[in-house]
Amino acid sequence: MVYGELKIRSYDVQIHRARVEDLERRCEVGPTKRVVLFTDTMGDPICRIKNSPMYKMLIAELGSELVGVIQGSIKLATVHKPPKNLAKLGYVLGLRIAPLHRRKGIGLRLVLELEKWFVANDVDYAYMATEKDNEASVNLFIKKLGYAKFRTPAILVNPVDRRALRLSSKTEVAKLRIEEAEFLYRKLMTSTEFFPDDIGNILRNRLSLGTWVAYQRGESWDGFGSDGKFPSSWAMLSVWNSGELFKLRLGKAPLSCLIYTKISRLIDKIFPCFKLSAIPDFFSPFGFYFMYGLHLEGPLSGKLVGDLCQFVHNMATKTKDCKVTVTEVGGKEMLRPHIPYWKSLSCPEDLWCIKAMKNEESTILQLPKTPPTTTSLFVDPREV
């Protein structure tokens, strides 16, 4: 029960920025049973959504105290919804409630107000992501708001240890021009779940560092598939520099993680010739590279995915404060076993939930039971 009058307003940077930043710093994110992360938005609380086609932030106030915030974005993307593939999607993210005001219905009010904005903008479906063990979030969205469990992708996080990794001499890595990358994505991934219709805008964004393909050295690939011909095995991914938008900081971690971190640094300092991986300092603010649009084809493509991940790692070693690489893949995607990651910081099941905004409950009930249209899931880097 909320005591006093709760007011929900649109975010005003001149009035609310400092208080929203303070709230963000006090609210933990991530899997609380293993690690706790805190976010530093570096003076721009709306940074995580401002690159989306449409976006909105709402704040909740009790008297003069700011007690909650929520963010939302809208885009056109592929959804398993016959007979048409595209649907207007509203994404719910960044729900934060001040620790002393939780379990008072403030989160419920904020989501309901955001859903009104979705409806006013003709959104077909609203969706959100949370860790499956986050009981408060699951209870709010599934039990109280009628969202349905949809997919359970995995968030894979790998440390950047500042030492360049050696790529296989049998692998060729080439950077695509933006036009080539957009052509390939539209040719190969338009049926992938949640593939954004404005992929060109994502690729052209200043935070998108580029798209790379890997294939066996000695195989030619002129035109990058424009003639319908591809190497016998190849892989592709794009990279988004999330660290330019916001930083993360580790609040707590398992004892094994702390011990391994200290030991690895000690060995690295005393015996540098061993060339062991030294785990970065996650207790200071750090940024990360997000790998998106991963795709592979051919019998040797799994190895090529691993080579591309190593290539991105080497890129990250040259970027200040970039301490991890991150990607999110579908639970049954073929490329998952080939992506290096650190189990202690990764999330094996990131629960995605979805809700119809146009009274299409029968369709929503079928979506979780229906196999994905492809083995892939496209995770929009603007929503990370």
UniProtKB/TrEMBL annotation:
It comes from the Eukaryota. Pfam families: Acetyltransf_1. Residues 6-172 form the N-acetyltransferase domain. One of its GO terms (molecular function) is acyltransferase activity, transferring groups other than amino-acyl groups. InterPro entries: Acyl_CoA_acyltransferase, GNAT_dom, Plant_NAT. This is N-acetyltransferase domain-containing protein. It comes from Populus deltoides (Eastern poplar).
